[in-house]
Design goal:
Chain A is of the alpha/beta class and about 375 residues long. Chain A has helices at about 1-20, 45-60, 80-90, 105-115, 145-155, 170-185, 205-210, 225-235, 250-255, 275-290, 300-320, 325-330; strands at about 25-35, 70-75, 95-100, 120-125, 135-140, 160-165, 190-195, 215-220, 245, 265-270, 335, 340, 350-360, 365-375. In chain A, the strands form four sheets. Chain A has a five-stranded parallel beta sheet with strand order 2-1-3-4-5, sandwiched between helices. A four-stranded parallel beta sheet of chain A has the order 7-6-8-9, with helices on both faces. A three-stranded antiparallel beta sheet of chain A has the order 10-13-14, with helices on one face. Chain B has eleven helices and two strands; from the N terminus they run H-H-H-H-E-E-H-H-H-H-H-H-H. The chains are: A alpha/beta (about 375), B mainly alpha (about 280).
Chain lengths: ~375, ~280
């Protein structure tokens, strides 16, 4: 009695599933994102830019005649939350694609679920690099793209001794490890490298070491938000005025630091000051859609916007939302958005134009130099 | 030389942060686990003062007043029924801390807030350039410490408080209004903690969870110090100093847990900690 009932249920679910895929229902985009936890400050801006992309595409007729629909799930910025979020998006909501900005912990926890569910996944956050999976594409930067512009610029300013400070976690250590090897490959010297736990608040001893080290330039890679602000306040309080590059600061955080942030060098694939028609149109559309609720677009939210368009292009090229043809198309299509023309053509990663910016006393960022189509290097040679 | 300055100023900051907790624990024998939340409230007073265009120094009295008033309400509504149940009081204040954190988040958002620096710049001391604000913090700690010594030793309130610490039943039998003294002590403790929150703003990020990082450290220090401000000063100097030394010569990551580990060790060896100092 029990067996046939169960079988019937499974069969009807399968029938319903296949009928849905062939129909004209919406194409569902799953967005697992850190609405709570460490990413909660930036996540709303990511959701906003995804909403704008979907609205624009639907207003222009959708994709293959079907509208796009966002399904947003909170991954709590961590591994445990990501497992739940991915599981429910892939197997319950049956989304056609995952497009999201997340922490590395959340991405790594979600990838096995993505492999099992065989869903294309576009990751839109910059990260420490070398995450390889046939279903994963990345349209944001890796250390090979972010660090060289900064070190090259500092070298040009005459610095040869560098001090590195970071938060003790995968991204902080990964970025600084690459920074160290790049500094050394360009003939510079690393005179100190120090870390504090992510919830650490007292940088006193590290700053004293920095001052005693004879360093000519400082590169930091802390967790975003609070540790970054705390370190910068204490550095300024101690009178450190070395050339200072911050690998983890964004324009919004720079603004909240006020005068303390002035002079900081940042390297990003997006700053609001990019002078292009696409960026101007994007900013105007964001302003019009969200008004007073607008979260400043940033290097984490703009790739999310572009990724929705990249997915649209791939589906149109493949003529279907089936995973395999879409994945094959994803590295062949390109989209010209606020950051320029993006194509995820290099081992599932994208060459990007990088901007070296300097924070001004009023919190705005001016572009000092731009580096066109910086190559992501050997990220996934086996893909 | 920098090392010495690092040690004394780190100790001073620890002292400032823990003083309010000690005031409450010493007299009331209640561990106020909402301590971190009061630090946060104080820091947000600095944000509000900045938003109103006030002189950043005015945030100090503003925070003291706000902390004391909120502390008074808390004492009356939440803490008063729990004096005989200190374990329940820990739970209640812990919960209150979460509620305050969420209210701050609702009102101001999760983002890091901007506050104006109280004393930017550096100063030449003992042959090195050092953060002017940290030197100021050292002075502030001394003022707070001496202020408390005066309050306890030189005023009627202090005398009553000491009587309550020694033998509360007897103090009440002698006609002291212990309920009122408790209220005032609690208000002073929370006011002082909010004040410490303002003093932290030039050193740390201001966000809804900023107080949590300071809670465990100050809790451990107060457990070791018992009810004596002198013992707290000694504990801050010793353990803060150890933290700086470990951070400088071994690893800043280990430095971050030095205070908690050493306090636990001391309490293991002597359950009264430094209270006899």
């Amino acid at each position: 009695m029990k067996m046939p009932t169960l079988f019937a249920t499974v069969a009807s679910v399968m029938l319903a599933g296949s009928a849905y895929a062939a129909g004209d229902g919406p194409i569902r985009i799953g967005v697992p994102v850190g609405l709570s936890g460490a990413n909660s400050v930036v996540a709303p801006s990511v959701v906003q830019s995804a909403e704008l992309a979907v609205e624009e595409i639907n207003a222009a007729g959708g994709v293959l005649g079907r509208p796009l629909e966002l399904v947003i799930a909170d991954d709590a910025s961590g591994a445990a939350g990501a497992q739940k979020a991915f599981d429910s998006l892939v197997f319950q909501k049956e989304v056609d694609v995952l497009i999201s900005m997340e922490t590395s912990a959340a991405r790594n926890a979600g990838l096995p679920i993505v492999s099992r569910g065989q869903v294309p996944y576009i990751y839109t956050s910059f990260y420490e690099g070398r995450s390889c999976n046939p279903f994963l594409y990345v349209n944001a930067w890796v250390p090979e793209q972010q660090v060289p512009p900064i070190v090259d610029y500092m070298k040009g300013q005459g610095a040869s001794k560098y001090f590195l400070i970071g938060s003790d976690y995968a991204f902080g250590r990964g970025m600084l490890e690459f920074a160290r090897s790049y500094v050394e490959s360009t003939g510079g010297e690393v005179v100190g490298e120090e870390y504090l736990p992510m919830d650490g608040t007292d940088w006193t001893a590290i700053i004293s070491k920095l001052k005693a080290s004879g360093a000519e330039a400082l590169i930091t890679s802390t967790a975003g938000g609070a540790p970054n602000v705390t370190l910068t306040k204490q550095l300024r309080g101690a009178g450190v005025d070395l050339p200072y590059a911050n690998l983890a600061v964004d324009e919004g955080t720079a603004k909240s630091m006020g005068a303390d942030a002035a002079g900081i060098l940042i390297s990003a694939s997006y700053v609001t000051g990019i002078d292009s028609a696409e960026n101007a149109a994007f900013l105007k559309a964001m302003e019009a859609k969200f008004g007073a609720d607008l979260r400043t677009p940033n290097d984490l939210s703009v790739p999310q916007y572009e990724a929705v368009y990249l997915y649209k292009a791939a589906v149109e090229k493949a003529g279907t939302t089936d995973a395999k043809p879409v994945l094959d198309a994803l590295d062949e299509v390109s989209f010209t958005g606020p950051r320029g023309t993006i194509q995820m053509s290099k081992q599932h990663h994208a060459p990007l134009t990088m901007y070296l910016g300097q924070v001004q006393p009023d919190g705005s960022v001016t572009v000092v130099e731009s580096f066109k189509d910086v190559d992501p290097g050997e990220q996934c040679p086996k893909l | 030389m920098t090392l010495l300055l690092d040690i004394v100023t780190t100790a001073a900051i620890l002292f400032i942060v823990s003083a309010g907790l000690l005031a409450i624990f010493g007299v009331l024998k209640i561990v106020n686990f909402a301590h971190g939340a009061w630090l946060t409230v104080g820091a947000y007073c600095a944000v509000v003062a900045g938003g109103l265009g006030l002189n950043p120094w005015l945030a100090l009295p503003l925070a003291f007043a706000a902390g004391a008033v909120l502390g008074g309400v808390t004492e009356r509504l939440i803490v008063r029924p729990l004096y005989a149940r200190p374990l329940d009081a820990i739970l209640a204040t812990w919960g209150l801390g979460i509620v305050i954190g969420q209210l701050v988040t609702l009102w101001f958002g999760r983002d890091v807030q901007f506050t104006e620096s109280l004393l930017p710049g550096t100063i030449h001391v003992l042959g090195t350039t050092y953060s002017l604000y940290r030197i100021f913090a050292l002075g502030a700690a001394v003022v707070i410490g001496l202020g408390f010594a005066f309050l306890l030793e030189g005023t009627r309130l202090g005398l009553s408080a000491r009587a309550i610490i020694m033998n509360e039943a007897l103090a009440r039998a002698l006609g002291l209004d212990t309920a009122r003294i408790r209220l005032v002590t609690f208000m002073i403790g929370t006011g002082l903690t909010a004040l410490a929150g303002v003093l932290l703003t030039p050193l740390t990020s201001v966000d809804p969870t900023m107080g949590v990082a300071w809670l465990i450290g100050s809790f451990m220090l107060v457990m070791v110090a018992g009810s004596s401000f002198g013992a707290l000063a000694v504990a801050c100097l010793l353990f803060g100093g150890a933290q700086v030394l470990v951070s400088t010569f071994i690893s800043p990551i280990l430095g971050g847990i030095t205070v908690a580990v050493l306090c636990a060790l001391v309490l293991r060896i002597s359950s009264k900690g430094f209270a006899r100092v």
